């Protein structure tokens, strides 16, 4: 039971990490990598912004490695929480919102529509300043109203 709670807690904590990273790292120090993501059209299959998938995967990989050494321990479940959040992030951000894969094109789910609206508000700013809606899975309730 404790491992399940660790996984859920880390999953939820990752939304805070994502918000802080997106606002202060992606729109700050590492804007060079994130900038192409704010352009209206993608020129290539991959964008520089995709480096963040690798950056976020590294801690998960390390935690999985040390989490199975000598038997499964709590580190494995911290890595699992990060990985599950990464999967959700990918499905919401790259599949639902940016349609890099054409899987959930015509959703009528109010939650998913709200996420899409909030992200569009975030992307109306092409520069790194004046951003809003830096979260991914939890956005202000005003975006869920139809």
TrEMBL record:
<feature type="transmembrane region" description="Helical">
    <location>
        <begin position="51"/>
        <end position="68"/>
    </location>
</feature>
<keyword id="KW-0125">Carotenoid biosynthesis</keyword>
<feature type="transmembrane region" description="Helical">
    <location>
        <begin position="6"/>
        <end position="25"/>
    </location>
</feature>
<keyword id="KW-1133">Transmembrane helix</keyword>
<feature type="transmembrane region" description="Helical">
    <location>
        <begin position="74"/>
        <end position="92"/>
    </location>
</feature>
<protein>
    <submittedName>
        <fullName>Carotene hydroxylase</fullName>
    </submittedName>
</protein>
<keyword id="KW-0812">Transmembrane</keyword>
<comment type="similarity">
    <text>Belongs to the sterol desaturase family.</text>
</comment>
<keyword id="KW-0560">Oxidoreductase</keyword>
<keyword id="KW-0472">Membrane</keyword>
<dbReference type="InterPro" id="IPR045019">
    <property type="entry name" value="BETA-OHASE-like"/>
</dbReference>
């Amino acid at each position: 039971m404790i491992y399940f709670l660790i996984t859920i807690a880390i999953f939820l904590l990752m939304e805070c990490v994502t918000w802080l990273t997106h606002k202060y790292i992606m729109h700050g120090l590492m804007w060079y990598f994130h900038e192409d993501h704010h352009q209206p059209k993608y020129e290539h299959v991959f964008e520089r912004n995709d480096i963040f998938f690798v950056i976020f995967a590294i801690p998960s990989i390390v935690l999985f490695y040390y989490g199975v050494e000598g038997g499964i321990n709590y580190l494995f479940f911290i890595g699992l929480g990060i990985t599950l959040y990464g999967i959700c992030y990918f499905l919401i951000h790259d599949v639902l919102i940016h349609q890099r894969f054409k899987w959930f094109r015509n959703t009528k789910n109010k939650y998913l529509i709200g996420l899409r609206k909030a992200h569009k508000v975030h992307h109306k700013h092409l520069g790194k300043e004046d951003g809003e809606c830096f979260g991914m899975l939890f956005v202000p309730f005003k975006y869920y109203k139809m």
